[in-house]
Amino acid sequence: SPGGVHVPDEATPPPPPPPPPPRESAATAGPAASPPAATTMSLDWPVRGDILRRFGPVGMGERNNGVNIGAAEGAEVRAAAAGRVGYVGDDLAGQGLTVLIVHRDGWRSVYGHLGAATVRDGDDVQAGQAIGTVGTTAGDGRPSIHFETWRMRGDEPTAIDPLSVLPR
Question: Is the pTM of this model over 0.85?
Fold first, then answer.
């Protein structure tokens, strides 16, 4: 999710809904006729670590559309579920190196502030497959990743709290 100059979080003033994940073309990529989106999805943690920042409002009209997970610099970041890589790049303001994965039933996952990416646009990935490493571009000096989950409802992406779809 583009936005924010210094913090890794989405900076969007309410009441408008949060903007789409990294590129609209990546967010809407997929088959033309897809089945109705599932209300839940089974995901695995992309990396083990402490939650540094939670989903939701973070003050001053800013919003975090994901969670920031602190982990050792260089630790492997893994795909939370099987899918196809829809975006890899570092041209999104405030996100650092980012990978977006398109999953079944209208779901998307976004992995920001990577140290390195080991996948390319269009790659098919399996759940648990390494897609990159933890980086240090979050702006607070701590190695971490920014992880978002999105669900497409028609053409409209909706940010979903990752903690509501990740195992406890």
Answer: no
